[in-house]
Design brief:
The structure holds two protein chains of two kinds.
Chain A lengths: L2 H18 L9 H16 L21 H14 L3 H23 L6 H13 L1 H6 L5 H17 L4 H12 L3 H17 L6 H23 L4 H8 L7 H16 L4 H7 L3 H14 L2 H6 L20 H13 L3 H4 L1 H7 L13 H6 L1 H13 L3 H20 L2 H6 L7 H11 L5 E5 L7 H7 L21 E2 L2 E4 L6 E2 L6 E5 L1 H10 L3 E7 L5 E7 L1 E2 L1
Parallel strand pairs in A: 1-3, 1-5
Antiparallel strand pairs in A: 2-3, 4-8, 5-7, 6-7
Helix pairs in contact in A: 1-4, 1-5, 2-3, 2-4, 2-24, 3-4, 4-5, 4-7, 4-20, 5-20, 7-8, 9-10, 12-13, 16-20
Chain B lengths: L1 H19 L11 H16 L22 H13 L8 H22 L2 H13 L1 H7 L5 H20 L4 H15 L3 H17 L1 H4 L3 H24 L1 H10 L5 H9 L2 H15 L3 H7 L18 H14 L4 H14 L1 H4 L11 H23 L6 H34 L7 H11 L5 E4 L2 E2 L5 E2 L3 H8 L4 H7 L1 E2 L6 E3 L2 E3 L4 H4 L5 E5 L14 E6 L5 E7 L1
Parallel strand pairs in B: 1-6, 1-7
Antiparallel strand pairs in B: 2-3, 4-5, 5-6, 7-9, 8-9
Helix pairs in contact in B: 1-4, 1-5, 2-3, 2-22, 4-5, 4-6, 4-7, 5-19, 7-8, 8-9, 8-11, 9-17, 11-12, 13-14, 16-19, 17-19, 21-22
Classes of the chains: A alpha/beta, B alpha+beta.
Chain lengths: 529, 540
């Protein structure tokens, strides 16, 4: 065991610690709670939360979900039971292994162990990669897969492993269907020089067939077109652009401009220019070093993908590879475009999940930048980086408050209250407490999974409103006095509380505050739905 | 050599045309900044005081935004030369906009030592949307950029020819003048000078004594400026009102976390966001309300050449100092925009876009050189490539012209306080028929906004003598009330005001219950540029 091994071990342990510390942070979003619960149900019964046996497509708030993440969570829950640990540990491991992959990758770009360790350390300390390693999500898995795939190609690994990795990518995220083919072609053309032409062509053809099969299978699903239109090609249904073209053209006509010139200036090409600029906005320095995601879904809400100070070695690294880098290093820059180009078609939302895919490649460039800096500056940069990361990891109360809407914590307190009752009690919960309350109910209570089984085929943005004795109430719900043997506990929002208070005298048993200490949920008695 | 000066002349003439063509009509009306500076300039010319009675002020109270004095005094000069016309307020801005073209040629020639790039830079600056827009907007920042470019031209000339000491003094003098033109320049220019000395220190080591004397001279020149900044409470007030801590998103964040960390995180992100490509190439000039269908600060076609320019500059041998200076220019130049409460404030960072135009010119030069050096058998492709590029460039220009002259008035007339001029002129015409004219400047198509500088509009278009205005202007007792002559600019309280006699009441739908007012009492309706109703005139 040489010195390098121990340094690497230290880096891996550091990465793991950063991801494992404060295990229950961040609190889950609705979809993450859904994946966590789903993993448990699959592990124990082979069915998803809706009662479907080993499906290949799952439900979520915004789109279909591909299976890899759910089955990975199931593996964690099979081993460790229904717990935060069981739900998160597979992704903590994936996130830690990513550090190892980047270390291995960096060996192909520099003979200096210094660069290998810096690359690994950067990956270990990336706020976004730390954050995503702590929650069930497809982004970290896909990031790992693409980094692994790159490594397998450079390492001349057995083609079986390459194929298996590609298949895993296809089962992880729809984004992979768009990226995989150009990614593989690019690597084969510019990085993989040792393969014969025939092997390259076979693999390219295989990749094309794999992706085509994925799309073909997907189009057999009822809401496939809608899914693609809303989530992957939203720019084309963007009414702002269409209306803008018409309006500006109309103003030109009113002002006497020749119609042919107005048509030439204002036409559907604007979809392309808008998409193109929007794509570049995704890979701007503000996202990488400023604030990646203010909603706190894929990163700490006030941080970029990297600590702020890392912009210095990144710029130095970028300049050095443009100036003096060999072709292999220069071509790293193209990965920023290859891995994020689907963002052209998603407007106006940012596709920060695609930006995460570029982070391992960026770690290499940053490491090359550190190579050009002197020791004192390197130490200072590391000190400032660790200070910023440590602050955000340690003082999470601000993060809880900033993400009160996307990552509520009160649901956990509420659901703990529900488990104190016999499950035979009738319970009602307002549906406007969070985007989707049902996953929280399922994850945080001891509910019988059968209560949620509905046998819906190909659920797309499917919402449940009933889980056995637990009912989710909407804005049109009517309330009445409870009958003699009726008893109901109702967790209401401000919306329903006001409605109830105008009709009934009720007792508020308990008030739950949200992350920002604002009264959000009221446990009441005395009325029934 | 004569050919290059001829080309430069053509570029300058083009620049003059683009900046002066229908300057009196576009933008379609003087905005609140223009009208306030214009009337204050006339007041200074006629009385030596601003409209509030301050003698030769070092800061103009204006609409409580405490403007820097340079542009107002420049307009006073224009008034003396050209007389009283509303468009004289735009002349200094347009003149400096043209001068920037010449200054950029000289600056680039000295910095990059390549006359072709210098000509390309001048051409791009001459036709650049941001340069044209701000030149026509009566904006003082352009003057500062001109002085900066000329100053650094002379400083670079001194580095090249260190025996000619006058270059050093000229450079420093122009630098000092530039600091007086705009508030952010008082901060930016010294920073840039410090950066310049740091980067070129080795070239300056032989002239240490000369530099010390020159710096002392510079300090002497700028001392009055800093006395004003440090002693005038209005200066502090202005800094506080525009600083990033006024942003409500930051205020919310500060409630949840350590204040200084929140400011650091927020500011850093705001600063980096100024480099957002969608902002620079897509919608930075905010000509429309149509989301991404807008005009960037640079043409879209410039994007690939900007990237090429960056790569070319990185690869240039023996170019380290110049490269660092260009980088510093951009990083420092974005600071004002990055530290203010607005998400994007391009008017504070025009110097950056000037430099981006220069880098684009470098990219264009590198591309043209590559194209021209390709083999003869590809001559047709060469010609086609060049023609295609020219066609794209012309398309971008026509797109800009359409947006600026056609769409901008329709979409953004409210933001330049249209139709306050027509309202003011009408009010003047009716002045003698009534005892009082009440004007509530609360207006807006989709949401109410209080129009500022209303008293300036009424005074200027009412031909109200500044000397008289200084005596009569006073604050009233009612909400938002300002009074002079027969005018009361205030919030309308229709429940009480409807009983007034022999008055004109001018208000929008946000102040007047139009549906319940008898139609024979509404004697006039004023419209936004897009023909939507803006103000109603009610005669009681």
């Amino acid at each position: 065991m040489n010195k390098n091994f121990y340094i690497l071990l230290f880096v891996i342990i550091t990465a793991f610690t950063l991801r494992f510390a404060n295990l229950t942070f961040p609190s889950f979003t609705s979809d993450e709670a859904r994946i966590a619960y789903r993993g448990y149900v699959i592990a124990t019964s082979g069915k998803d939360e809706l009662g479907r046996a080993f499906p290949l497509l799952f439900n979520s708030l915004e789109d279909y979900q591909l299976p890899a993440v759910s089955y990975l969570t199931a593996a964690g829950q099979l081993l460790f039971g229904k717990s935060e640990f069981g739900a998160r540990i597979p992704f903590i491991i994936i996130g830690t292994l990513l550090v190892l992959i980047v270390y291995k990758l960096s060996k192909f770009f520099s003979p200096r162990p210094y660069i290998w360790f810096i690359s690994a350390l950067m990956t270990a300390f990336s706020p976004s990669l730390i954050f995503l390693s702590k929650i069930p999500n497809e982004t970290i898995l896909l990031t790992f897969i693409f980094a692994l795939l790159f490594y397998l190609f450079l390492n001349n690994s057995n083609k079986i492993f390459i194929i298996l990795t590609m298949i895993t990518a296809v089962f992880t995220s729809k984004q992979a269907w768009f990226i995989l083919f150009p990614f593989v072609v690019y690597i084969l053309l510019f990085y993989q020089k040792s393969w014969v032409k025939k092997d390259k062509l076979i693999l390219i053809a295989f990749t094309a067939v794999l992706v085509l099969l994925a799309f073909t299978f997907f189009f057999s699903i009822p809401q496939a077109r809608r899914s693609l239109s809303e989530n992957n090609f939203s720019i084309f249904s963007n009414i702002t652009i269409k209306n803008g073209i018409d309006k500006l053209r109309g103003q030109g006509l009113l002002s006497g401009w020749p119609p042919v010139i107005d048509r030439y200036l204002f036409n559907k090409l604007h979809f392309l220019t808008t998409g193109f600029l929007h794509w570049l906005s995704n890979i701007s320095t503000a996202i990488y070093f400023g604030q990646m995601d203010s909603s706190g879904k894929i990163n700490y809400s006030s941080l970029g993908a990297w600590a702020k100070i890392i912009i210095i070695p990144f710029v130095v690294g970028f300049v050095s590879i443009i100036n003096k880098g060999d072709q292999k290093k220069k071509l790293l820059v193209i990965f920023f475009l290859l891995l994020t180009y689907p963002a052209i078609f998603v407007y106006p939302n940012l596709s920060t999940d695609l930006v995460v895919l570029t982070l391992p490649f960026m770690a290499l460039i940053i490491a090359l930048g550190f190579e050009r800096l002197n020791k004192q500056i390197t130490v200072l940069i590391f000190f400032l980086m660790i200070l910023e990361i440590a602050w955000n990891i340690s003082f999470v109360s601000a993060e809880y408050k900033n993400t009160a809407d996307s990552r509520p914590i009160l649901e956990k307190d509420m659901m703990t209250n529900i488990t104190e009752k016999p499950i035979t009690s009738k319970i009602a919960v307002s549906d406007d407490l969070v985007s989707d309350i049902v996953p929280y109910i399922e994850w945080y209570t001891l509910i019988d999974p059968n209560a949620g089984f509905e046998q819906v085929n190909s659920p797309y943005k499917f919402r449940q409103y009933s889980l056995g004795n637990i009912k989710v109430i909407g804005s049109d719900e009517k309330f009445s006095t409870c009958g003699i043997e009726q008893q109901m506990k109702i967790f209401v929002s401000n919306r329903d509380l006001k409605k109830i208070q105008t009709q009934f005298n009720i007792i508020i048993l308990k008030i739950y505050n949200n992350n920002s200490d604002v009264n959000k949920v009221f446990l009441i008695e005395g009325v029934c739905t | 050599m004569k050919k290059r000066y001829l080309i430069l002349l053509v570029i300058i003439v083009l620049g003059i045309f683009l900046r002066f063509f229908k300057l009196q009509y576009f933008p379609v009306q003087l905005n609140h900044d223009e009208i306030s500076q214009l009337y204050d300039a006339i007041s200074i010319a006629q009385t030596g005081k601003d409209i509030y009675g301050n003698f030769l002020p070092t800061m103009f109270q204006s609409v409580n935004d405490f403007k820097s004095p340079f542009y107002t005094y420049a307009t006073t000069l224009t008034y003396f030369i050209l007389g009283d016309h509303e468009w004289i307020i735009r002349i200094p801005g347009a003149i400096f906009g043209v001068l920037i073209i010449i200054a950029s040629y000289l600056f680039v020639l000295r910095l990059l030592r390549n006359y072709k790039i210098a000509l390309l830079s001048s051409f791009l600056i001459s036709t650049s949307p941001s340069e044209i827009f701000f030149s026509r907007k009566s904006f003082e920042n352009g003057a500062g950029i001109f002085f900066m470019l000329i100053a650094f031209y002379f400083l670079l000339s001194f580095i090249e020819k260190q025996k000619i000491i006058r270059f050093l003094y000229l450079g420093i003098t122009f630098m000092a003048v530039g600091m007086y033109t705009y508030f952010s320049h008082a901060m930016i220019i010294p920073l840039m000078l410090g950066v310049f000395i740091l980067i070129f220190r080795k070239s300056l080591t032989g002239s240490k004594k000369k530099i010390i004397f020159v710096l002392l001279y510079w300090i002497l020149l700028i001392t009055p400026l800093f006395v004003v900044i440090l002693t005038n409470p209005a200066s502090r007030y202005r800094s506080q009102t525009v600083f990033i801590t006024q942003d409500m998103n930051l205020v919310k964040r500060m409630e949840h976390t350590n204040k200084y960390k929140a400011i650091l995180d927020f500011s850093f992100n705001r600063y980096l966001d100024q480099f957002n490509p969608a902002f620079i190439f897509g919608n930075g000039l905010a000509f429309t309300n149509q989301g991404p269908l807008d005009m960037g600060l640079l043409f879209f076609i410039q994007l690939p050449f900007l990237i090429l320019g960056v790569i070319y500059l990185i690869k240039l041998e023996n170019f380290h100092k110049e490269r660092r200076f260009i980088l510093a220019w951009i990083l420092v130049g974005m600071l004002p925009s990055g530290l203010t409460f607005e998400t994007h404030s391009p008017h504070r960072s025009i110097m950056v876009f000037t430099m981006l135009n220069i880098i684009t010119a470098v990219g264009l030069y590198a591309s043209f050189r590559k194209i021209m050096r390709t083999q003869i058998k590809f001559a047709l492709i060469k010609k086609f490539s060049l023609l295609f590029l020219i066609a794209l460039f012309i398309t971008n220009n026509i797109y800009f012209i359409h947006l600026y002259y056609v769409n901008f008035p329709y979409e953004k007339s409210q933001e330049i306080h249209y139709p306050f001029k027509q309202v003011a002129q009408f009010a003047r015409s009716k002045r003698d028929e009534v005892d009082q004219i009440i004007f509530d400047p609360l207006f807006g198509e989709t949401a109410p906004v209080i129009g500022t500088a209303t008293h300036y509009y009424l005074a200027y278009y009412g031909n109200f003598p500044p000397a008289k205005f200084q005596k009569e202007y006073r604050l009233g007792t009612r909400e938002r009330e300002v009074l002079f002559d027969k005018f009361s600019i205030r919030k309308i309280d229709w429940r009480k005001d409807k009983d007034l006699k022999n008055v004109l009441i001018i208000g929008s739908i946000w102040s007047l219950p139009i549906d319940s007012i008898s139609k024979d009492k509404i004697i006039k309706t004023f419209y936004y540029y897009n023909k939507q109703p803006a103000f109603y005139v009610v005669k009681l």
